[in-house]
Write a structure and sequence with these properties.
This protein has 376 residues and is of the alpha/beta class. The chain contains 15 helices and 13 strands. A seven-stranded parallel sheet has the order 3-2-1-4-5-6-7, sandwiched between helices. The protein has a six-stranded parallel sheet with strand order 10-9-8-11-12-13, sandwiched between helices. α7 crosses α12 (326-338).
Length: 376
């Protein structure tokens, strides 16, 4: 039996960490000799993502297929699901790997439908946080977790990107009834090269999606508090796009920071790292964010919130970790910027990070899960 697989990655939004994860996986899987394709939403992403798709297009033997997918459950899901199913059926995958809540639902449902027609398809699901961020005490949370429990019957293997994510699944959905693995996100070897700040670098950098879950508003509020404590103005750069961007621009202007916070379109993380001395990740919730790994691999000092899988990267008790609170974050900005060289020395060791969070390790472990799900 051939070890070459036809792998299709299904996910909704081609932005942020999920898209980064899929790009890294496809590169490694292509290098291993597999035929790979992507099915995702056509209504999200901008010029930056289009450039990434253009680079990927020629390498993917099964192609890139984009079709409208709604973020939330609604009437349009029926038409969207039918279009997506027809695309996947035509690709004849051996492995259908769903990422995020919507991608995971589609991959497992459509993989099961293909099995009815006697296709042998392995159905894998990586939550990447997704619906696991909901509070199980709310009506929305109860609905999503009930769906997750149902979908567990149509899953061959669960892949978690952090121990935090696996604990959240057990708490909110229940003990997995199928095989599951913890596989950390991984970086390419080239990403473990240091990035120095440019000559006119700002003090602070936020890079990520412009939505409240990621905490841009916390970042902006914290700057005002840090300025008062330091008795000087600070300069910041905020890189990213999203529906909530106008509100953050308005917030900065309202707080008198309009001329000291520069908002820029999405760009490669390593390019953004040169724009500032200190990177801040103020998220309210995360699973295993790539931006934290990328920042540390590039040798940049950073502050991050102690949410999701982030403490698994730094280790417990790290001085870099704070709660997603503007007062606490502002105080940490003051401490870090007062002696940045000393603060940099508290960051995790680069060689240790590489051993735990390498893309080669990630791809190898996920491939094992694929073959186990197929019984090979």
């Amino acid at each position: 039996m051939s070890n070459q697989l036809r792998i299709v990655h299904c996910f909704r939004s081609p932005i942020g960490g999920i898209f980064r994860h899929v790009r890294d996986l496809t590169d490694a899987q292509i290098a291993a000799g597999h035929a790979v394709g992507i099915v995702c939403d056509s209504t999200t992403g901008g010029e930056f993502e289009e450039r990434l798709f253009n680079v990927m297009g020629s390498k993917l033997a099964l192609g890139i297929h984009r079709t409208p997918m709604q973020r939330h459950i609604g009437p349009g899901d029926v038409a969207s699901a039918w279009r997506t199913y027809r695309i996947i059926k035509e690709l004849q995958p051996d492995v259908l790997h769903g990422h995020g809540a919507k991608g995971g639902a589609y991959a497992r449902l459509f993989g099961s439908l293909l099995r009815v027609s006697r296709s042998c398809v392995a159905r894998l699901y990586s939550p990447h946080g997704g619906s696991l961020h909901y509070d199980e005490g709310t009506l929305t949370g109860k609905i999503f977790f009930a769906i997750e429990r149902l979908m567990g019957r149509f899953t061959d293997h669960l892949l978690f990107v952090s121990e935090y994510e696996r604990r959240a699944y057990r708490k909110k959905v229940g003990e997995p009834k199928v095989p599951n693995s913890l596989v950390y996100n991984g970086l390419r070897t080239s990403e473990f090269e240091p990035v120095a700040a440019g000559g006119d670098a700002a003090d602070l950098l936020y890079i990520g999606m412009m939505r409240d879950l990621k905490g841009p508003d916390i970042f902006i509020d914290a700057i005002t508090r840090a300025e008062k404590a330091l008795a000087r103005n600070l300069r910041a750069v905020m890189v990213g796009a999203g529906d909530d961007l106008p509100s953050y621009r308005a917030q900065a202007k309202r707080l008198g920071l309009g001329d000291r916070i520069e908002f820029l379109e999405p760009m490669p993380a390593r390019k953004a790292f040169a724009l500032a001395h200190l990177v801040v990740v103020p998220s309210r919730a995360e699973a295993m964010p790539y931006i934290v790994l990328e920042t540390l691999a590039a040798g940049k000092p950073m502050i991050a919130t102690a949410v999701g899988g982030i403490p698994e990267i730094f280790g417990s008790g790290s001085p870099a970790l704070v709660e997603p609170d503007p007062v606490e974050l502002g105080n940490k900005m003051v401490a870090a910027l007062t002696d940045l060289a000393a603060y940099r020395d508290t960051m995790p060791n680069g060689s240790g990070l590489k051993a735990r969070f390498g893309a080669d390790v990630m791809a190898r472990e996920i491939e094992k899960a694929y073959f186990a799900a197929l019984g090979r």
